[in-house]
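Issue 218. Parser rejects a valid record. Input:
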Amino acid sequence: MAELTFRREAATEYDQAFAHVTRYFMPFVLRAAHVAPGMRVLDIATGTGLSAEAALSAVGSGGHVTAADVSAEMVRTARDRIGGAPNASVAVEDGQALSFPDLTFDAVLCNLGLMFFPDPARGLAEFRRVLRAGGRAAVSVNTVVEYSYNHQINEMIARHVPGLADAVSRTFGLSDERRLRTFFVEAFADLDMHTVKHTFVLPSFDAYYGPFERGGVSTGQALATLPNEIRAAVREEARRYTEKNSH
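Output the parser choked on:
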């Protein structure tokens, strides 16, 4: 089965494509985890370290943040962002098989990442294992397919690369509240769930599509595998879609 991947171009263009999205939702995640000064925090699926950077501000000089991602290229970018902080560490980690000892962290954060885990239940079990008594895990996931920032492009690509269909569908695999609740209840005794709605507006189609076209994030990596004529067809289809849905 093919997978959406994060290589060098994906990491380089990630902030251009998604920094404003990640930063918008991070305060909700920090509050849900009750992150406070002095805490030890794991930010898993950290991407380029934007969420870990926010967590560093929340824990202050007396706390510590570990930023981890399964992608070595994302970790390299995150290290450039926060690696100079004396109370931060950055590592390549599989969220479904963490290398940390039991009871290591006061909070585990996963901002817009859990839905990409092949086995989210296993990931949540790992979050629980590395949490100290009384610790909290907080995650954010995509919910509404129709208004996804990049899911429509992923579906267009998957029509040309059928092997990606499963990976693309996983992007919204946790949009069903009952399914997400079931996974959490299996790993944790208590659960609070909230829905946050926000519309992101970009100045132009090129501002939206450009980072993907340049190989940014997993969408752009998948685009890069297509012949030029198919890439052009996907671009035109995406342009028509955005024009139709921007009014």
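Fixed in the parser; the record now loads. Residues 215 and 221 are 5 Å apart (CA to CA).
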